[in-house]
Amino acid sequence: MGNRILLPTLAAVTAALCVLSLAVGPSPIDLVAAVKQLILGLTSTEAAIIGQIRLPRTLLAVATGASLGLAGAAMQGWVRNPLAEPGLLGVSASAALGAVIVFYGGWTLYHPLALPLGGIAGALVSVLFLYALAGRAATAHTLILAGVAVNSIAGALTSLTLSLSPNPFALSEIVFWLLGSLADRTTEHVLLMAPFVAVGTAMLLSAGKGLEALSLGEETAFTLGFSPTRVGVTVAAGTALAVGASVAVIGAVGFVGLVVPHVLRPLVGHSARRLLPAAAFGGAALVLAADCAVRLMAPGPELKLGVVTALIGAPFMLALVLRLRHAGMR
Q: At what angle do helices 140-163 and 114-134 cross, to 10 degrees?
């Protein structure tokens, strides 16, 4: 399937899920009437539900899903390994660590940008450390082991930070936040996250041609006028900005960057350049669908978004590992 068909299809699916996201929730509303009231600036309960609760949640789902899907596709092309993914390789855990340190230090009281900046710093350090640890020609096993190491270090430091927290209520809030959720997010969260995600997304999309050349080998990439180092810096910085800001605002949401590129790669002819925009739309659609599913479940405590994506992604990863093992035995 060419991008001329695939991208419009994914965009239409994402748009339909956005409408569904605005429509579903514990309070039944007339969506058309509520949107009209919101546009006209009328004050009503339905307009407030759309403008203050569901619209920010929908926008954050789109931004987060697009960031994770795009970052996963870019990282897989950068390290030339099909198992690369922000959550699996410790990028999300490190971003969460950076955000938790900011929480613990109370720096969010001084400036609201401290939270996304903490997440971005943690994600950037982990990406660079991972690349240095695994090496340029890392095998799947080496990359997974490096990711496990980064995940373990970030998880241990996060646990240490939480164990030192003197406030049990703050500790409980941070633990629930770490599970990943779009509940109780506002327009302020959207405005806080959007600039970083926009810049990171633009950087990752700009690396498409370089990743395409890099898939042919570093020497070939040099011949075609692309510096592997420059491509790597672009992917690392873009991933840190997009994923770091997303995790800092909504918590860790895993496996999106693993599932989406693998599903879409055959549909774009295994082209890294064509995969990037498709993965962004696919990631947005997946997170929107998961968040809608969370809200459509039986009444009671809302299931965390990160739990739902893990339930989807973990079996997928297991099947992928078994397939790679079977292919390696031939």
A: 140
Q: What are the sequence ranges of the domains in the chain?
A: 3-9+62-284
Tell me how far apart the alpha carbons of residues 197 and 201 are, in angstroms, rounded to a whole number. 6
Q: Give CA–CA dist 38/46, Å, rounded.
A: 9
**Using CA atoms, how far apart are residues 69 and 286, in angstroms rounded to an integer?**
9
Structure tokens at 306: 């990160």
Count of CA atoms in the C-beta half-sphere (13 A) of 147:
20
pLDDT in tens, 82-136: 778 888 778 888 998 998 888 877 787 777 788 788 888 988 888 888 777 765 5
Which string of b and e fits 110-149 if b means at least 16 CB within 10 Å?
A: eeebbbbbbbbbbbbbbbebbbeebeeebeeeebbebbeb
Distances from the Cα of 36 to the Cα of 12, 21, 33, 186, angstroms? 22, 17, 5, 20
Asked if CATH classification 3.30.70.100 holds for the domain at 3-9+62-284, the reply, yes or no, is no
CA distance linking residue 106 with residue 104, whole number of Å: 5
At 172, the amino acid letter reads: S
Tens digits of residue pLDDT in 121-148: 988 888 888 777 765 555 556 777 787 8
CB count within 10 Å of CB 28 equals: 9
- The answer to whether 69 touches 283, Cβ cutoff 8 Å, is yes
Instruction: Indicate the DSSP class of residue 51.
Output: I
Give the whole-angstrom CA distance, residue 101 versus residue 323: 39
Cα 229 to chain centroid distance, Å, stands at 24
Residue 169 CB-density burial (10 A; 0-12 exposed, 13-18 middle, 19+ buried): exposed
User: What tokens were used for 160?
Assistant: 């240490």
Neighbour tally for 106: CB within 10 Å: 10
The torsion region of residue 226 among left (phi > 0), alpha (psi -120 to 50) and beta comes to beta
Is the separation of the CB atoms in 196 and 242 below 8 Å?
yes
